[in-house]
Amino acid sequence: MDLTYRPRRLRSSMRLRKMVRETRMDKSSLIYPMFVTEGTNIKEEIPSMMGQYRYSVDRMEEKLIELAEAGVGGVMLFGIPDHKDEVGSQAYAEDGIVQKAFRKAKEACPELYMIGDVCMCEYTSHGHCGVLCGHDVDNDKTLELLAKTALSQVQAGADMVAPSDMMDGRVEAIRSILDDNGFINTPIMAYSAKFASAFYGPFRDAADSAPSFGDRKTYQMDYHNRREALKEVLLDVDEGADIIMIKPAMAYGDLIREAKDNTCLPIAAYSVSGEYSMVKTTAAAGFLDEAAIVCEMAACAYRAGTDIYITYFAQELAKYMDEGRLG
Ligand code: PBG
């Protein structure tokens, strides 16, 4: 055959394949989501998330040190309070669970970059992401509480805040309270395009945050929509977001790319609990190779355009990158 093009030429050895690789990854862009709970001496496995744990504040340190030693870039904290009420008051309490956890993390492991997930659903008795008016979440009343939550997390030591509630105008509300209190240099990573997704199932079990009635479809996005995702992204850019997030990651690569091509901000993608548990349970059944799938999922998210990858596999991925399996 007299072929002009033989693309296989560049695939002929590992050395060459690595040389021409288009997507490069770095451990410093990995973020690990971590659950902290009230109580002492607790490290309990989350039933729906094999290999993931809820830690009490006094037991966090062991995990934080492992993550820092592995080279993971940052940690995103989720608090699980003892007490929930209608207005989620533990979300913005000075001695709330996540505030205590930030203080501890900063003292135990100052080199780790600590991020606060800002939402109400783990803290409200009804499990919705804001305060209710009848059976729906009252957007504008919720903004005030989200802003207070973000401020209290930053005052406790959070390096960055990440609002995940999907209320309209929350980036602006948080930016303005942080600025008014002197935190002009604390970045906001906005969960800009967060979809009403069944992939969050295991998380709601982990954080005890399933809504007690209805669903989140009046605030989280409809997964049929691509242009609306871009609208949300561009609104958050206008409101002053520093980083844009797309969530979930695995089935939403088109939107990661859309955000990347239409903004000048760094893009984050959150590989959520359902993605994690699908891999874990299928691998445990012996039906697929866990490490290979985890590498492939990560590389695909970065290839789609993500700069920051939030994943329960962060520590494993850091190791795979060290081993040269990807990146
Ligand atoms: C809080 C929040 C959720 C997740 C991150 N922040 C749950 C939800 O929106 O129901 C999901 C993360 C995951 O599934 O890993 N609103």
Automatic annotation (TrEMBL):
5-aminolevulinate 2 binds at residues 273, 312. Mg(2+) binds at residue 232. Zn(2+) binds at residues 119, 121, 129. Its EC number is 4.2.1.24. GO terms for biological process: protoporphyrinogen IX biosynthetic process. Its cofactor is Zn(2+). 5-aminolevulinate 1 binds at residues 204, 216. InterPro entries: ALAD, ALAD_AS, Aldolase_TIM. Coiled coil: none annotated. SUPFAM superfamilies: Aldolase. The active site is at residues 194, 247. Pfam families: ALAD (PF00490). Keywords: Heme biosynthesis, Lyase, Magnesium, Metal-binding, Porphyrin biosynthesis, Zinc. It comes from the Bacteria. Pathway: Porphyrin-containing compound metabolism; protoporphyrin-IX biosynthesis; coproporphyrinogen-III from 5-aminolevulinate: step 1/4. Homooctamer. Catalyzes an early step in the biosynthesis of tetrapyrroles. Binds two molecules of 5-aminolevulinate per subunit, each at a distinct site, and catalyzes their condensation to form porphobilinogen. PANTHER family: DELTA-AMINOLEVULINIC ACID DEHYDRATASE. Belongs to the ALAD family. This is Delta-aminolevulinic acid dehydratase. It comes from Butyricicoccus porcorum.
